Amino acid sequence: MFYFFIWTFTFDQKTMNKNEIASRAMRQHILSTTLEIVGNEGLAALTATKLGKKAGISKGALYHHFDNLDAVKYAAVDELISMFLAVAEPANFDDFESYLEVTGDTLYLTMQCEPYAMKAMYSFTTQALFDEQFRVAIQRFSQHGLTEYTRAIEYFYQGKIPQHQIDTAIRVVDAFFLGVGLQSYVLQGDDRFRQNWALFSQMLLTQLGER
Is residue 124 part of a domain? Predict the structure, then answer.
């Protein structure tokens, strides 16, 4: 009886783990499909019917993983933000210029591999004007980016230049982070984004006394 209990417990645990993995994979598939629809057609185009059809699942399966369509949207914006929150570690670079170069290349690569991602971000950012939960998510994204750039700037420059120069450089980041970069990519294309990123880097480096 004891051995049967152990075998049953182990079997149930393995089954549970497989089910959990499958459930997570399905949630990820739903969120990726959501971002693709929003990025290609806009947030208004997202419906449960369209999402289910494109994801290849029934509405019942969709609502098994999410309470409603709003829950899908909120989870999707969090998923999208996580794609852009991966940042380089300043200690891995010799200087701030190389840090900026790798950061820009990483963003550009994300845009190339997930071409709908930035457009989806723009849709969610617009929706943040009307929806508090979207607004909080976008604010969190913006604040995280600003915090990471502040950390990098202070790592390379604190004690080497006056604090007011560092503060001004951080304000440049704050102005650029969700504005010019997002707009230049969405409205003018990814090549324009690279040009604007280079200009942004030059402005920062000039402010920090590197140019």
Answer: yes
HEC sequence for the chain:
CHHHHHHHHHHHHHHHHHHHHHHHHHHHHHHHHHHHHHHHHCHHHCCHHHHHHHHCCCHHHHHHHCCCHHHHHHHHHHHHHHHHCCCCCHHHCCCHHHHHHHHHHHHHHHHHHCCCHHHHHHHHHHHCCCCHHHHHHHHHHHHHHHHHHHHHHHHHHECCECHHHHHHHHHHHHHHCCCHHHHHHHHHCHHHHHHHHHHHHHHHHHHCCCC
Are 146 and 59 in a shared domain?
Answer: no
| pLDDT, tens digit, 9 for 90 and up, residues 107-149 | 888 777 877 887 888 888 889 999 999 999 888 888 888 888 8
The model carries a pTM of 0.75
Q: Which domain holds residue 156?
A: 85-207
Give the domain CATH number at 65.
1.10.10.60
pLDDT in tens, 150-203: 899 999 998 888 888 888 888 888 877 666 566 666 666 667 778 888 888 998
Residue 79 lies in a domain: no
